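Quick one: examine the sequence and fold tokens given here and explain what the tokens say about the fold. Here goes:
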Amino acid sequence: MPHKICVIKGDGVGPELIEQSLRVLEALALNAVYEEAEAGYACYQKNGSPIPDATIESCKYNEVVLFSAITTPPNIPNYKSAIVSIRRALELYANIRPMKTYPGVPCLKENINFTIFRENTEGEYSGVEGRSGDTAFSMRVITRKASERIQRKAFDFARASGKKKVTLIHKANVLRESDGLWREVALGVAKEYASFGIEMEEVIVDAMAMRLIKEPEKFSIIVAPNLFGDILSDEAAQLVGGLGMTPSANIGDKYALFEPTHGSAPKYTGQNVVNPLAQLLSVKMMLEHLGESGRAEKLENAIINTLQAGIKTKDIGGTASTSEVVDAIISRL
């Protein structure tokens, strides 16, 4: 049976990156059928909604979603982020971002290889906001259910991958109730995995921001509440070459979506200059999720061989165009 994949091209450079991804999937001879759906600012201009109901239905119907990048304008009242809406509708509670050094890419250190598990549905992004006169407020929501499921996802990954340490990020010394609950749940989860030789260390978020720069090689699996995970993962991306090198997966119990961590970069639209590797490494993660580990490994090896040959885009020190990098990868599959 062919895999069923919903494809969302998005805005800016998103459509061209999706087209390059489909070229690679074709070269890998993946048995799949693709259904295109719309989301983002261009979709809003066309349909009056950045995330139509039909798109949510397509995401639910297909096995996985291959997503690129969208524009979320800040100045439109009641405009809802398409990707946040999809994450909520599909309960994609785990945002998983691997950070890994690759040959030929300018990095802080050569031996970085860790994965950030970010809670994806609540925290400061709960959507509970308002104003009263000259005062604005946003509610930070932390629940036992959401905390436990993302923490278990991180510990399960540690067990499956043979890792022995999970780093818990919090600010419970100040956010005593919300992060107090987050930490309380984690201590209980950690006890269940101690028999597998997995330990949990706790790091206050501001100290973690420092340690990522000082000693990133000491981490393997990091789990954090939503906002902390969002900020730390963008910081971490710069350690391994920038957002053009960092993929991500959004995973729930029933659905999964794969996307690069960078934005839509509208100023580069149609110029054939953006780094396609975050998108293609997201494709690799998608292939692994689909049980296509052989194709995933083949794709990563082709990316590594291409980088070793010095074929790379300007953002990581090269001169090649987007399509030239993809051509080189395809020739090495």
